[in-house]
Write a structure and sequence with these properties.
By secondary structure, the chain is α+β, with helices and mostly antiparallel strands. It is built from 1 helix and 9 strands, in the order αβββββββββ. Strand 1 and strand 2 form a beta hairpin.
Length: 144
């Protein structure tokens, strides 16, 4: 009878230790990318444009960073892996509209809406805007 109890106890301890080992094998803080603050404003004719998604798409390898402009056209980038900012590197700046369907001038269909920025900014391959993110504070203003 003691052998069964001892065997079950050892099995439970083994499983518990195995759980700790497995949970420690995942990504940790060291896997988090180094991010640098990136902010700026989007303006048309000197006025801030709100509800614009600003995407910094890496020109080569890397993780994109995204922000949305507020009432005054200001935005701040965040990284999908968590944290504010973007990794150091060269990016293509891509814009898209984030307003609700009711806000589209095309009657709810984004493909029919009139963009508040040149259409060329809506694709990584056609955008004329690029940005370099470096260590420290980065300010990238966009104006039409």
């Amino acid at each position: 009878m003691n052998h069964i109890f001892l065997s079950q106890h050892i099995s439970k301890c083994f499983l518990l230790c195995l759980c700790f080992v497995i949970s420690g094998c995942g990504g940790g803080v060291d896997d988090a990318p180094t991010l640098y603050p990136v902010k700026g404003t989007i303006k048309k004719d000197g006025q801030g444009i709100k509800d614009i998604r600003v995407s910094f798409v890496p020109a080569e390898d890397g993780i994109p960073a995204v922000g949305v402009s507020g009432e005054d056209g200001s935005y701040e980038l965040s990284n999908p892996k968590g944290g504010l900012g973007a990794q150091a590197g060269t990016y293509k700046v891509v814009l898209s509209v984030t307003a609700s369907e009711a806000g589209y001038s095309g009657g709810g269909d984004p493909s029919k809406s009139k963009l508040p920025f040149p259409k060329s900014y809506s694709s990584k391959t056609t955008t004329p805007k690029s940005a370099q993110v470096k260590a420290g504070e980065n300010v990238v203003d966009i104006e039409f």
